[in-house]
Design a protein that fits this description.
This protein is of the alpha/beta class. Helix content is 41%, strand content 17%. Helix 15 crosses helix 16.
Length: 694
């Protein structure tokens, strides 16, 4: 009868401009799909060149090399007898489009340009591409000679069309179009399209995965149909981690789920589905059928090919499954760990160095590296040859097999406790014990000699010696002396990162890891060019609250008992003198606000788009049980003063793993001035007027 169709989708760890590696991974996904009987294979958005090419999309080289890769795919026997759907940029009539190129047996069937471009948050597609605004319209696209020589075609259809095979009808969406209020699958479904495809470049955000899953399932719950989603995975060259989650859904229920986090460069999902399930589901939805009778039809590209076999009555089809979501603590353990692994192997460095202070933030960073080591050992145990080859290159040993996370950690991870006269023995002991439990190569050093030398130069030149407040100094002196200690730690971190392996007789250098959390960055509670300045920061997009929960998760799941004392200790920078041998300085007292309050300010400022007055109006209701309007006004004013005074620090913020939608990352996500009028006179006057009225 031809009712059971076998289709494949995938999650590929593509890398921007790595045309050779991207081609190899595409070929592997096609081979796996064909070996499991698939007749259609879907890949991620812009998979040929890699999604994150950014301004390289302006270059004609990017278009040229994409077509060269496409030619390799077209002429290969590996792509025969399977419809292949790949993503690449295409220039049509001097306009650049983000496209799907769908081909079969050396013939291009359709080039489908993206209709709705992603242009919020981390996405800037309108900078490089133009949306296709001609609904249900197809034009002729003149193929470049390099493709004509392979296909024998001079022109192919280009535009908003669907494919009509012998047994069904397929329509494409591209990433953002699923999220748009007028998604193409709505009208396509009414016009008889039974299989919807979506090639995505969707990145990880904490607690976001369920949104994507719900959108896919709801796409076919109302209208019936099969929905196939492919996504990029991994770090393709910047702050984002694309989190896979390839999936296949039928009539509102998931039938195949891919992993959200893994070290597999190629992951393929194959499912066999019954077209009659779609037809019978739609048949009883009268409202859908009434709307379908009035729909404006799509142009159909006829394809002399079937996704099913003629004799398939006995072929088993996939049944619905329950999607398993990770907890936020699991997401923190896995997402940044996979991102770190991609960064490490692709940067060709020999490991990481982390200034480990014995506090929550640097300890959480250390735990993420330890989780990465766990993932590597698990992948090798499961037979992942790519991970084994990368691990051997990193440790410079062709016979090495990572089996124990602690032993692997010792080889690739150096932690360093940088004590000063203001450091307590407690934090020193905590850092040492944690290093022992995760297995890192640990260094203890003292920075007092360097601090005294720097301050001594200043005193010799000026004839003045700055003092801490507790010794009679001013707040300016106090802050400057704290900053000297912090900045010397940054200099020493880079020195030890470059030469520690040299002293151990090992080749290579180390990447320096930062450990400032998203809340501290938002408030500016960090020294510019201190240990927050590093090569990369796996926790820079994660809140203090989430990090504390993650630490608890590590205690329970990795048996890191050293974290218990770290959890119970009040957060402190340890930059001011001790009092009777004990820490007198705490982060929340220094900041004038709690970390819990900071998270609320951050979400209101960025996600709710609240300025000072709107934030005050929202908080007088949120906090009406605990604060008077005047107290709320004071808190809001203090936050905005501190935020604006310190915003310049965001321009030098270490590249951080993007995990929160209230990240203050100045590079792409949170575009603001860095020179503010910090009095906020007009805004604060509006708040004061409202306080007096209340």
């Amino acid at each position: 009868m031809g009712r059971a169709v076998t289709v494949a989708t995938c999650a590929l760890n593509q890398w921007a401009l790595d045309f050779e590696g991207n081609l190899e991974r595409i070929f592997r996904s096609i081979d796996i799909a064909k070996s499991q009987g698939a007749r259609y294979r879907l890949g991620p958005e812009l998979e040929i060149c890699g999604y994150g090419c950014s301004d390289h999309y302006y270059e004609s080289d990017t278009l040229l090399h994409s077509f060269q890769v496409l030619a390799k795919l077209l002429e290969s026997p590996a792509t025969q007898d399977i419809i292949c759907d790949v993503g690449m940029p295409v220039l049509h009539r001097n306009v650049r489009y983000n496209c799907r190129v769908i081909f079969l047996n050396k013939k291009i069937l359709l080039i489908r340009p993206k209709i709705s471009l992603a242009n919020a948050g981390n996405y800037r597609e309108l900078r490089w591409f133009t949306p296709w605004n001609k609904a249900r319209h197809v034009e002729e696209y003149f193929l470049p000679r390099i493709i004509q020589e392979v296909t024998g075609q001079e022109t192919v259809p280009f535009g908003d069309a669907v494919l009509a095979t012998k047994d069904t009808c397929l329509g494409a969406e591209i990433c953002e179009e699923l999220w748009a209020p007028n998604s193409p699958h709505i009208e396509m479904g009414l016009d008889g399209v039974e299989i919807f495809t979506n090639s995505s470049g969707s990145h990880h955000v904490l607690r976001k995965a369920h949104t994507r899953v719900d959108l896919v399932n709801s796409a076919t719950a109302k209208n019936g149909g099969i929905y196939i989603l492919a996504n990029q995975k991994g770090c393709d060259g910047d702050r984002l981690y694309y989190d896979g989650c390839a999936m296949i859904s039928v009539n509102g229920e998931t039938v195949a789920q891919g992993s959200q986090f893994s070290l597999d460069d190629v992951e393929v999902l194959v499912a066999t589905l019954d077209l009659e399930d779609v037809r019978s589901y739609r048949a009883e939805i009268s409202s859908r059928n009434l709307a379908a009778s009035k729909v404006n039809p799509y142009p159909r590209v006829k394809v002399n090919f079937a996704l099913s076999c003629s004799d398939d009555v006995a072929v088993p089809t996939c049944m619905p499954i329950q999607w398993r979501h990770h907890s936020p603590e699991e997401e923190i353990s896995l997402g940044p760990a996979c991102w770190l692994w991609d960064y490490l192997r692709r940067s060709k460095q020999a490991g990481f160095l982390l200034p480990l202070s014995g506090g929550i933030d640097s300890s959480a960073t250390a735990c993420i590296v330890y989780s990465m080591c766990h993932q590597v050992c698990l992948a090798v145990k499961n037979g992942n040859a790519d991970v084994l080859a990368d691990a051997r290159k990193i440790v410079n040993d062709e016979t090495y097999v990572p089996e124990d996370p602690r032993e692997f950690c010792k080889r690739i991870f150096t932690t360093c406790y940088m004590a000063s006269e203001n450091s307590s023995q407690d934090t020193c002991n905590r850092a040492k014990l944690l290093a022992e439990q995760i297995g890192s190569y640990h260094i203890n050093l003292n920075i007092d000699t360097a601090v005294k030398a720097i301050v001594g130069i200043f005193s010799m030149v000026t004839g003045r010696t700055p003092r801490f407040c507790v010794y009679g100094g001013s707040s300016r002196e106090n802050l400057a002396l704290q900053n000297v200690q912090a900045r010397i730690r940054m200099v020493l971190a880079y020195l030890f990162a470059q030469l520690t392996l040299w002293t151990r007789g090992m080749p290579g250098g180390l990447l320096v890891l930062g450990s400032a959390n998203v809340d501290e960055s938002l408030r500016g509670y960090l020294t510019k060019y201190d240990c927050s300045s590093a090569d990369i920061n796996p926790i820079g997009g994660i809140s203090k609250t989430d990090l504390k929960n993650f630490i608890q998760y590590c205690i329970e799941n990795f048996q890191l008992t050293a974290l218990r004392s770290i959890m119970s200790a009040p957060p402190t920078a340890e930059l001011e003198p001790l009092v009777d041998g004990q820490v007198a300085q705490t982060d929340e007292a220094d900041m004038g606000m709690t970390y819990a309050e900071l998270s609320i300010y951050g979400k209101l400022r960025k996600i709710a788009k609240a300025g000072p007055y709107s934030m005050f109006c929202k908080l007088i209701n949120m906090w009406k049980e605990i604060c008077t309007p005047r107290e709320v006004a004071s808190k809001v004013k203090h936050f905005f003063r501190m935020y604006s005074v310190n915003r310049h620090k965001m321009t030098t913020l270490t590249p951080s793993y993007h995990a929160e939608n209230y990240s203050p990352d100045d590079n792409r996500f949170d575009l603001r001035p860095f020179l503010y009028n910090t009095t906020w006179s007009w805004q604060f006057r509006c708040i004061d007027k409202q306080v007096n009225a209340l």
